[in-house]
Amino acid sequence: MSQPVVYGDSISTYVRSVRLTLEEKGVPHTLVAVDLIKGQHKEKDHLVRHPWGKMPAFEHDGNSFYEASAIMRYIDEAFPGPALMPSTPVERARANQVMSIVDSYGYAASITNIFIPRALVPSLGGQTDEAQVAAAKPQAALFLKEIGRLLGGASYFGGAAVSLADLHVLPVLTYLRATPEGQALLAETPNIGAWMERMNQRSSVKAVMPAA
């Protein structure tokens, strides 16, 4: 079986989620850099891999995929190692629900409309769009409130063991926490803060994501 190849930028939340999944399964992989800041994800070579110019793209054994959640589920099913989805229908549905919440609501509020204008744009010499950030705060608050409710008192979103849902949420919240707005919002969901500390102790996280 050939080694999987991930195409994308190591700073991308979705690239990180896929690589965390590979690490949790103990699967070596190759990361082919696609520079997000330079716009390489919109260039012809990458558009062949992902027609919408997003990341990551993924190859394994002659098969190509895009969309992080689909890639993560493939990795979980195609490789040996600990199962990364719960065994019961209710717990699996909850994990899938959390992943969908990230894609449909959490990413835009946390990354597109808070982290990027607050942290990334100024780091590149631009100015924060304060109106954009302010408008996103209620949606980010709702995102945190709802995933906090779904986590409840469990250790992980899949129950007692780490799941794909945990690996999908963590990179987004790591960037959100890097902003003053995110820190204030996370202070209101202490179970999510405690969950982040548990996640950050995992060897997969230490291997894929720099200390924050």
Strand content: 5-15%
Question: From the helix content, strand content and strand pairing, which structural class follows?
Answer: alpha+beta
Rg over CA atoms: 17 Å
The CATH class of the largest domain is identified as Mainly Alpha
Strand arrangement, major sheet: 2-1-3-4
Number of separate structural domains: 2
Largest sheet: 4 strands, mixed
- Tell me which CATH architecture of the largest domain applies here: Up-down Bundle
Assign an overall shape.
globular
Total beta strand runs: 4
Helical stretch tally: 9
Average pLDDT metric: 94
Under CATH, the topology of the largest domain is which? Glutathione S-transferase Yfyf (Class Pi), Chain A, domain 2
Q: Describe it for me?
A:
It is a single chain. It is built from nine helices and four strands. The protein is of the alpha+beta class and 212 residues long. It folds into two domains: 74 residues, Glutaredoxin; 120 residues, Glutathione S-transferase Yfyf (Class Pi), Chain A, domain 2, CATH 1.20.1050.10. The protein has a four-stranded mixed β-sheet with strand order 2-1-3-4, with helices on one face. The protein is globular and about 45 Å long. The N and C termini lie far apart (35 Å). The model has no long low-confidence stretch (mean pLDDT 94).
